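Hi team,

As requested, here is the filled-out complex form for the flavin mononucleotide run. I kept the field names the same as last time so the parser does not choke. Let me know if anything looks off before we queue the next batch.

— J.
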Amino acid sequence: MKPDAIALNRSPDDVLGIYQSAMEAAGVGFSIADATRSDFPLVYVNATFERLTGYTSEEVLGRSCRFLQGDDYDQPGVHAMRQALRDGVGCVVSLRNYRKDGSMFWNQISLTPVHAPDGKLTRFVGIQTDVTELKQAQEEAVKAEILRVELENEREIAALRENFASMVSHDLRNPLTGITLSLELLETLDDRLTPEKRLEYVQRARRQARNMRDLLEDIVTFSKGNAGRVEFNPQSLNLAMFCRRLLGEMQAEGRASGGSHQFDFQYVGDASVIVDEKLIYHMVVNLISNAMKYSAPQTQIDFHVQVDADHITLKVSDHGMGIPKGDQKRLFEPFHRARNVREISGTGLGLAIVKNSVERHGGQIQCQSVEGTGTTFTISLPRRSP
Ligand SMILES: Cc1cc2nc3c(=O)[nH]c(=O)nc-3n(C[C@H](O)[C@H](O)[C@H](O)COP(=O)(O)O)c2cc1C
Ligand SMILES: Nc1ncnc2c1ncn2[C@@H]1O[C@H](COP(=O)(O)OP(=O)(O)OP(=O)(O)O)[C@@H](O)[C@H]1O
Ligand SMILES: [Mg+2]
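And here is what came back:
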């Protein structure tokens, strides 16, 4: 027998008689409606239906069962039943119903069409089950799940905010040092500076101020809450020029603050690539400043960039103090500093920022280092097409 249609060679009322006693025994509400009339009036309800709804059979017979909905009839389950009845097919729905005393219960209703031997639709059988407890348990579970997800999101956002704040304050320090240095030079060397030199220092300070402004904009965006993470905004950039200029600035700052290094800059491949300029800035500044900080003045630092068909590789090598094996795994964790740094100052955030910036590009970073000999950081970014 098909579950949604009862069509036997017996008279419909015979079939219903069998159903009726089975349902009574099972303790579920049972109702029969006349399907030949437009409003499907009830022609029979069992004792469990009466108990479940609080209405007697005299009060309900001849009426459409919709009175159980009260004013609460705009429910998906009601629409589904209406459609099924119109199409003459079965359905199972759960909806809010109201007893005679006004109390609400969740009613699971299963409707089945009954056909006469000639195929004519004559009856609809309804089976009602009170599923309030089940529904409440489900709702509790859903509420608990929503609460859990909300809490998790809040925790994640708090962690991101914290991380971002330290990232930003760290990265504000670099341009600020640059500006201070340029201003100091302008002040102390004023009459000894050629107009070109003076212009160079002013321009440098202006560029650094622009970097700071960009970063501050990030903070504003972030604190508004409309950016859960550091933005990723890949655009066409002349990477060759960008790296050369940044390196020049850092070298000049190194000289101005006492220690300078021998730089070997090499760039191979297309000059223009699609990258996020701010994130590339984080990578280059942090790797070069580490190389300068953790190796002796006058020693060589290599900065090699290679752009091929599908990768951009940035490599920074120094001949400095190196990183002890035991610290190499944890270098990219925020605040982690190797045990051989001694009095060299730092917060341990630089490489965490680099890693984050590399990952936003879908790239990878590797470190090769021998303590006392030197260190090489290699970044590999997948190339994006315009
Ligand atoms: C046999 C049968 C039993 C029904 N039992 C219920 C019920 O327990 N609760 C309910 O809200 N609606 C029940 N209905 C549905 C309503 O009677 C009505 O068909 C539904 O609200 C959609 O039609 P309407 O748009 O005319 O209200 C039943 C319908 C039939 C045919
Ligand atoms: N080129 C390098 N040579 C030797 N050690 C390095 C080098 N680069 C990084 N390190 C080690 O990795 C640690 C983490 O580097 P990171 O740049 O994250 O922090 P930091 O330089 O200590 O501080 P800052 O936040 O100011 O950059 C450093 O403290 C240092 O121990
Ligand atoms: Mg650093």
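Two things worth flagging: The chain has three domains: 12-130, 132-231, 232-386. Residues 132-188 form the longest helix (57 residues).

Thanks,
J.
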